[in-house]
């Protein structure tokens, strides 16, 4: 009987595996070291967890393969075919820099060097009319040259192809005739949108990643089949859904940033289980912290993201802010004599000073050990931390330079780290028009539960949720997603001139394409959910806002009013007298994947006893005698007041004074911050 669901999240240090039993809803986890070839780490973890792949109904995977390929530039030779005169669009970019004031720091070069950006004669005007058909003699010569160069992938990027992709399609046909087996991406298929740099950049990334990702997914799929798995491998993409290897062939760049989306999905799901429609995810690991936001049950979606500055990938993505704050982040002093924290990190090797691998510079982990918030035995006794080395690093690195007592110095390190993470939460909430007091904070990752309550108090967030397995929550996110694809079509008209019938016809075309693609992936019609939206803006702007659209669209006026309301919420003002323009028609197609429910646990009334007690500094002035519980002994319904420490295999939970914690029926710990109103 196929009753298991398996999710795998591959990180730089560990590969996390989450196994759910569909019958009982119970979850177990496994961690194994990541390997040079991620597939070896995955299969090793599957073996270590004792998983019989013939009993697995769903195997879902969040991968960093695409992200790492772009970062390291380990990409196959990729070419670009452009309209004559436009080969340098992706090098000119937007003529901006990540740091405008750093004269000597240049933007990294494009993924395709200029010598491999070839041109052909063709032209389409801004309304989609063909001014010049593709010169096929030139096209065949370009194809011949690229074949001789042994190019592994090609991006076809023609001007105004978003309005009419006929010339691009013909160029692709010629390339495939001359170079059979070489993947070809066209901008009109990958991203049919205005703004040529963003369209070209996304298409180039998609082409360059195609051989890498297709090779990886093919090899992983074969390894799984050899060991008994008979279903499709599902791959998490940045939009918060999954796709099959067949879809990856056409949209490889959707897997760039795949890993960080899983945590955002899991945090939203867990918050809703606990009764919170508004939630902020705080995923703090060893090197970085990822912050996400869900409002009214919906994750924030963005198209303004990139792996390397200057080269946007305009596929819809769950918005996640990443900062350099983790357990291994280093405490240091800047030239002005101020204490800083991160983004430099001790990493996994040599790691924090308390790992006893040679590092002497203090980290957040060392500070938590000094304060007693973190014990000296982790991962079920597999890792032992040296408290003396932690004290020595904090004393030499911070206490002596600032004239502080070691516990005060450790407290200062943690306060700076918490301030950095609080700023990231402000960026994704307050700066977007959301009040943190209306949200719950979901703290996960190996270090999130150590800092969650302090960050919540800083931002007046009334509740903190710590999942049952914080360290592998991102892997859980891979089990909670559906098939998802995004479709769009440009529609550039003032609202006063927009034709509701034409808009409805465009939605119908997109829906037909969506149904065909989901059917190809084996999704039944009854499991399809289609969500419409229209990007709109005030006349003269170039940044747009998405407004939900009804089915069918019969009137433009309600859409304009909805846009004014959304603009008011996002930017705190609206201009009813200013004309509104429509920019793009969007369709999100979701193929619902059956999901097993997490196991519920009835309250037992048992009151567990702490396994030990220790002195913990929750402030710099004094230590507090604090009970230390084992997470697995805490039953549903158990309520306890801070201070308390809860230890488990993959994390440590800090419940500070003036808080109350409760274990809910799903075994989440919900920490209520006293003095803050409930959401």
UniProtKB/TrEMBL annotation:
Indicate the segments forming the Hydantoinase/oxoprolinase N-terminal domain, all copies: 5-178
Q: Where is the Acetophenone carboxylase-like C-terminal domain?
A: 498-666
Question: Which InterPro entries does this one have?
Answer: ACX-like_C, ATPase_NBD, Hydant_A_N, Hydantoinase_A, Oxoprolinase-like
Q: Domain Hydantoinase A/oxoprolinase, which positions? A: 199-486
Q: Which GO terms describe its molecular function?
A: 5-oxoprolinase (ATP-hydrolyzing) activity
Q: Which GO terms describe its biological process?
A: glutathione metabolic process
Kindly list the GO CC terms recorded for this protein.
cytosol
Going by the entry's taxonomy, the superkingdom of the source organism is recorded as Bacteria
The portions of this protein that span the membrane are none
What name does this protein carry? Answer: Hydantoinase/oxoprolinase family protein
Q: Which organism is it from?
A: Ensifer oleiphilus
- Tell me the classification of the organism that encodes this protein: Bacteria, Pseudomonadati, Pseudomonadota, Alphaproteobacteria, Hyphomicrobiales
